[in-house]
Amino acid sequence: MAGSEAKNSGSKQSGAKKKEVKKETGLGLTNRKADNFGEWYSEVVVNSEMIEYYDISGCYILRPWAMAIWEIMQGFFDPEIKKMKIKNCYFPLFVSPGVLEKEKEHVEGFAPEVAWVTKSGKTDLEIPIAIRPTSETVMYPYYSKWIRGHRDLPLKLNQWCNVVRWEFSNPTPFIRSREFLWQEGHTAFATKEEADVEVLEILELYRRIYEEFLAVPVIKGKKSEMEKFAGGLYTTSVEAFIPNTGRGVQGATSHCLGQNFAKMFEINFENEKGEKAMVWQNSWAYSTRTIGVMVMVHGDDKGLVLPPKVASVQVIVIPVPYKDADTQGIIDACTATVNTLCEAGIRAESDFRDNYSPGWKYSHWEMKGVPLRIEIGPKDLAKKQARAARRDNGAKIDIANDNLVDEVKKLLDTVQQNLFDVAKQKRDECIEVVHTWDEFVQALNQRKMILAPWCDEEV
Amino acid sequence: MAVSLRLPSLTLTNLFSSPSSLPILRRRRPHGTLLRPPPLAASFSSQRAEAASAQTQDKSKSSKGSDQVITPRSQDFNAWYLDLIANAELADYGPVRGTMVIRPYGYAIWESIQDYLNVKFKETGHSNMYFPQFIPYSFIEKEASHVEGFSPELALVTIGGGKELEEKLVVRPTSETIVNHMFTKWIQSYRDLPLLINQWANVTRWEMRTKPFVRTLEFLWQEGHTAHATPEEAENEAIQMIDIYTKFAYEQAAIPVIAGRKSKVETFAGANKTYTIEAMMGDRKALQAGTSHNLGQNFSRAFGTQFLDETGQMQHVWQTSWAISTRFVGGIIMTHGDDAGLMLPPKLAPIQVVIVPIWKKDEEKVAVLNAASSVKEVLHTAGIKVKLDDSEQRTPGWKFNFWEMKGVPLRIEIGPRDVSSESVVISRRDVPGKQGKVFGISMEPSILVAFVKDKLYEIQSSLLERAIAFRDSNIVDVNSYDDLKVAISQGKWARGPWSATNEHELKVKEETGATIRCFPFEQPEGIKKCFMTGDPAEEVAIFAKSY
Fold first, then answer.
1. Least CA distance to B63: which residue of chain A?
2. Given an 8 Å threshold on Cβ–Cβ distance, is B108 in contact with A15?
3. A47 to chain B: which residues are within 8 Å by CB?
4. CA distance B375 to B424
């Protein structure tokens, strides 16, 4: 059965069989990506059943359709960092204010966004307690405690958790929310060289998440002094670009913290020469924002478009009965198709709901961004084939039953690659090289991404 | 339906509110009261100082070793537990009172629990999702009259981004209110049912008395929430989930839990029925290790969660909820651990086999290390979780103690003689001394792998058998209240026919400290007489002191 979580069916229905519904009724988006991007985005994330708005502004409910994407990315990233001997752990949600304030620059960067627990039940807490906006200040006192000698290094920990940043700027599901899910890696090394190497190794993993899984082209780079992580030495990031708005989006960050936190938290170790030295640290994170970037880059006016690699349902099989034709036979063929595909490791499901027409189902699953749709009607049954429709470009292909698995696999790969290629082309078209301030302003107004020489002096 | 709708706490409220004799964490508490978070610089350095003085070994690795001694279980079970957690590097104390830092080794155990359960949840049709952590106070207030147990425990956020918030926000102690709020929105017709979701999340309950893993201010768990069209479906779901938990406990954790139904007193007023799995810890106290509630229509009526059924009638949905938390890790520690430290069932152990290379002379080192590496490769390729401890600044003796403390099921020793005879020495964690040691196991991959897999399987069964024997020898079948009093005073569990009233039950609690853990699913045959009243009783109940 397609979709194990209930769908929002809009208006209440009677128990009687729903009449044939035209494709357009109540299912299309009212906003167009090119015209009102902001409203289009909000509509897509809700109508595709990824997000539900919540009574607290800036907080959203992640529905299974979105959670599955998060879990697939986790399924890639977690084993990769385990290979790098990074270990998962869990530090508390709560930070005491004194510890939060230990690293001055860090606190300047984050303090305005912290949420404070001031009461427990009816009692006021003597000292209010902060909810982690990021866990450096929670974790590093323990690093200080646990690291004594060079043999305790490198110390490489990661945690998957939720963080809270009480921002007031435009909340946007996935992109900017007050609570979000992420992973944060925190590592300590004896030498800067080791730290530098890891910063880039992780950055490469982030690039892979974006380019190989989400089919989103990103640019790797180093942040300016002003934009770097508060309290760190330097920040590297992968940057995505949304052509429709001409806005860049920070995709993920990998920071070298230098020794700033080591100084503040007294994270010292006895090196091989017996001298006291400070550790060199990194921290790196990617969050549920990745999902938002994917929506913005690939979505269209029919709704969400999911790259096959992260789609929880890669193929949706829909029976197309016709009057008195062999309906049971069609249903059986659909079931067989789903089984064959699943056995081959493809995430396929069928939609047999008899209260919705095939046309309604096409729109519904297109809204949800399923990469491939397979339709089986009486003619397909007779010809021992199925009709496939690609979500990315609408192309329709007939597939013989005998070649089902191979063809579907090829199609999914093609869709994945195509999504990336198209996104990359659109992004590249937006890049403009400039040399003067005037050119800069003009390009920005044209929603371009600008490549310009920059001395990064503080002014 | 005059049911007071107390928020079910899913696994733990019951124990939070019951004033069982829970020792306060004395050993490591920094200066300061229970309520106030300790002064910062003081908290860590004083923790360090206190820890150093309180223990024979301090936090620095270099002095851990053969003098790594934990308080014997028989002497002070609670001190043993805390020592073990510190020495096996499972957890550390959080900066805010009652919070816990789950260190990688402890977290890895939680991850094996997660991996297993996640598969089972998906197999039974549930989808993962994520609800926000903050609940508007008004949501909770909707249930204020029914949340007596919770309100003193709620953590409230009143300031965000430097401003006072318009409405106080509660940090979730459990997610019913948000879940039901959404269910009401998502469910309209019978076609929307069943709705089967789960979330893995952290929850916060401002506890007074805490104990690492067992009861912490913030803990990790999974909470499943389902909605159904009929009461039969809801009941089947509740039973299905407690069965999954039972199977998990037996087969993965080697913990022979007793599954059963809670008494009315112990059932949450928000639930029609609560099912539980009760585990016997090493000190014979009971630990509620997981719960599954049949919520009936209690919440759907409070939240207006309705659906149009096939006949066109509006009906309220029937719901369940169920949870297991990081408390389960505490259960594993206290069920199998001994005076040498942690003892992990192979199926959940992050490291199943540790290889300790032994050499005296430098010339022996290379050969020994090479042999050790290849043995590691062989086992790793066979899918066994293996670690080679080739660090050079620790003695083999130190390593033996360390990895025993960490509960690794099997240890392989390789010395120069083993290298020449191409064999290894294998020691079981669960059988001490010479009895648990086997010499001369061939390094030849097929032989070695088969032997290791066989031994791991044996250890898994043996741990379970031992736990079953321990449990059974500490449950007394009673036929009178006096017999129960004797059993409880001896620290055992009492099992006897029960059909008395809630008042009787509370009297037993007051007089003996024991509560009804459950009416077990497995019931003895025959006619029974309630041991308290003498009236006919259909079921036996299990009484015990608990965590």
1. A148
2. no
3. none
4. 9
**Alpha-carbon torsion B208, B211, B217, B222, what sign?**
negative
pLDDT the model gives residue B2: 35
Which among B40, B152, B155 has the least Cβ separation from residue A99? B40
Q: Which domain-ending residue is among B336, B364, B383?
A: B336
Question: Do A217 and A259 have their domain in common?
Answer: yes
* Best residue in A18, A65, A96, A287 for a mutation probing chain B (most B CBs within 10 Å): A96
Under a CB-based contact definition with an 8 Å cutoff, are residues A255 and A238 in contact?
Answer: no
A-chain residue closest to B51, CA distance? A145
Does a structural domain hold residue B196?
Answer: yes
Is there a contact between A141 and B95 if contact means CB atoms under 8 Å apart?
Answer: yes
pLDDT digits (tens, 9 = 90+) for A253-310: 999 999 999 999 999 999 989 999 999 999 999 999 999 999 999 999 999 999 999 9
Task: Considering only the beta carbons, identify the residue of B61, B95, B218 that sits closest to A148.
Answer: B61
The boundaries of the domain holding residue B484 are 475-545
Contact B62 A149 (CB under 8 A): yes
Contact A113 B189 (CB under 8 A): no
A189: alpha, beta or left? (left if phi > 0; alpha if psi -120 to 50): beta
Q: What is the CATH number of the domain that holds A410?
A: 3.40.50.800
pLDDT at residue B31, as a whole number: 34
Any domain includes A427:
no
CA neighbor of B154 nearest in space, from B135, B167, B180? B135
Shared-domain flag, residues B370 and B517: no
Q: Distance from B195 to chain A by nearest Cα, in Å? A: 6
To the nearest whole angstrom, how far is the Cα of A151 from the nearest Cα of chain B?
Answer: 9
Please give the Cα distance from B274 to B12 (Å, whole number).
12
Range of the domain at A367: 315-414
pLDDT on residue B340: 95
* pTM of the predicted structure, to 2 decimals: 0.88
Inspect the interface and report whether the beta carbons of B160 and A353 lie closer than 8 Å: no
The secondary structure of chain A, three-state, reads CCCCCCCCCCCCCCCCCCCCCCCCCCCCCCCCCCCCHHHHHHHHHHHCCCEEECCCCCCEEECHHHHHHHHHHHHHHHHHHHHCCCEECECCCEECHHHHCCCHHHHHHHHHHCEEEEEECCEEEEEEEEECCCCHHHHHHHHHHHCCEHHHCCEEEEEEEEEECCCCCCCECCCECCEEEEEEEEEEECCHHHHHHHHHHHHHHHHHHHHHHCCCCCEEEECCCCCCCCCCCEEEEEEEEECCCCEEEEEEEEEEEECHHHHHHCCEEECCCCCEEECEEEEEEEECHHHHHHHHHHCECCECCCCHHHCCCCEEEEECCCCCCCHHHHHHHHHHHHHHHHHCCCCEEECCCCCCCHHHHHHHHHHCCCCEEEEECHHHHHHCEEEEEECCCCCEEEEEHHHHHHHHHHHHHHHHHHHHHHHHHHHHHHEEECCCHHHHHHHHHCCCEEECCCCCCCC
Residues of A in contact with B147 (CB under 8 A): none
Q: How far is A350 from chain B (nearest CA, A)?
A: 15
CA distance B419 to B424: 8
The CATH number assigned to the domain holding A264 equals: 3.30.930.10
Nearest CB partner across the interface for B160, out of A93, A161, A166 = A166
Give residue-wise pLDDT tens across range B464-505.
999 999 999 999 999 999 999 999 999 999 999 999 999 999
ipTM surpassing 0.85: yes
